[in-house]
Amino acid sequence: MIVAHPGVEILDVAGPASVFGGASVRLAETGEPYRVTVAGVGDRLSVQAGVVRVLAERRLDEVQGAIDTLVVPGGLDIGPGPIDPALVAAVRRAARRSKRVASVCSGAFVLGEAGLLDGKRAVTHWAGCALLRERYPTCRVEPDAIFVRDGSLWTSAGVTSGIDLALAMVEEDHGRELALEIARWLVVYLQRPGGQSQFSVPLAAQVAESEPIRETLTWMREHLARDLRVPVLAKRAGMSVRNFARVFQRELGTTPAEHVQMLRLEAARRALETTSRPHKRIAADVGFGTVETLHRVFQRVLAVTPGDYRSAFQARRQRGRRAPR
């Protein structure tokens, strides 16, 4: 059940709907498919979502019986200003009949107003995490996460992270193979792990205006194990070392060396989160060269060893899997 409300973000609705709808095509052959329903609030069955309108099938208060999954999308008007009391009340009532409740982006504020975040771990769009923590002080906000599961409560970060959350639900319900198949159909990762950072170094690099810099950044991401010192990068960009360093600093707000280190750190984090590769292999694959360098960078930037990082991440995922629904 996906809740449609005035000002809803269309991707917050379409992302999870596409995942569950795609899974239903496959499940129709082998088991019971999901039934994706978009429900309106109050008398509104048609709501504006940017340049398009979302047509709800029914009103949320008209839905009878148990709800398997209640998804509350966000919207531009959710968070900073007051939230429609009718929306909050309808979500609170529906949540009592739901096996699990989820939010996408600023939809977390609706859950907060409904009292569903009290004493829970949660996340929202990175730009709203401080406000979420301030407004609901008993909620333990995890601002660096793509999505967070605390028992039957699921919350996700900004916009497209609703796809990651929905894929994780499909994996929990029907296994990794089906989730992988849906991810391939949608041309996305199987899912970014819930604890993976919202802040992506490659994403930040897209702000570069200079085409030679952008092309060099792409090459860097694809060749982390290569020599990525400034003279090599400057030559690849067709620029002098001095000019390359100056333009790079101006457009990305950091030095080439610092950016290379963060690219390698992000790749190492991803490998620790999603694989069982030994630290020595990861250090070589991402360009740190030695385990000692890998350890030094993790300690300096994250204040944790690679081993402790992997253990903490895996323990968090195990807690989520064991949590009662």
Short description:
With 325 residues, the chain is an alpha/beta fold. 51% of the residues lie in helices and 12% in strands.
Describe the structure.
- It is a single chain.
- α1 crosses α6 (176-186) and α11 (256-274) packs antiparallel against α12 (279-286).
- The two termini are 17 Å apart.
- The protein has helices at 10-30, 85-96, 107-113, 129-135, 161-174, 176-186, 201-205, 211-222, 230-237, 241-252, 256-274, 279-286, 291-302, 306-322, and strands spanning 2-3, 38-40, 46-49, 52-55, 58-59, 67-72, 98-103, 121-122, 140-141, 147-150, 153-156.
- The chain folds into 2 domains: 2-186, Rossmann fold; 201-315, Homeodomain-like (Arc Repressor Mutant, subunit A, Orthogonal Bundle).
- By secondary structure, it is α/β, with parallel strands linked by helices.
- α1 links the parallel β1 and β2.
- The protein contains 14 helices and 11 strands.
- The chain has a 4-stranded mixed β-sheet, with helices on both faces. A 3-stranded parallel β-sheet has the order 1-2-5, with no helix packed on it. Strands 3-4 form a two-stranded antiparallel sheet.
